[in-house]
User: What shape does this take?
Amino acid sequence: MEEVIIVIFGLIFGSFLNVVIHRLPLEQSIVKPRSFCPECGKTVRAYDNIPVLSYLILRGKCRDCRTPIPVRYPLIEIFTSFTFWYSYQMAENGLIHLIFTIIFLLILTALCLIDLKHMILPDELTIGGSIIFLIYSFFNPEIKTLEALITAFGVTLLFTGMYIFYIKVRKIEGLGQGDIKMVFLLGIFLGANKLIVTILLASFSGLIVGLVIIIIKKKDFKYALPFGTFLSIGGYIAYFFGDSVLKVVSSLYM
Assistant: This one.
């Protein structure tokens, strides 16, 4: 019964996450007005706003204007529900830590999709999240406070140095300021080991995707990729499997 409740809560929060992902980059309120069709402007009825189920009943179209509803909406709801369920399954440090874990993973999900579409990482999520987890670092049972602080400030300093290097020496923006703010968020919650895995996964996947785009779309090596998207994916994976990945990587050099 608990798992069913967790899944339902995940679907509900997934619906809200859709609002955040859509409105935050447009600098719109995530509280009001109620959900509406961006094509015809009609307010979505309450019974048409049930996560996943309404999409299926409406066959993926607005009830009023029949404009197709992007499939990403139910997919995000399902993925968020999975995040709730899997976090619950893996929880070992009590309810409070479970709540903060879910908040962290939802922020990563939002940052991933916003950066993918808009190439921005909103301060409301990066700085806002960093403040939340900076405070929580004094209570986080998974990593020591000193490790969290050193990791967060250390990686921020490192990425700032890389940002300055690209701007001053190579005359290009190799990293965005949003990436710098995001790595602080990652470091303060994940700690050193999992952050290393996050950056390794983000860099490797970014390199592979970048090469594929360069070859298929015939872009040059200055083609900009949403690095925050890769950091988000890397951070999500690293939270659950970071220690295992680090052991595998370490074993290759033993």
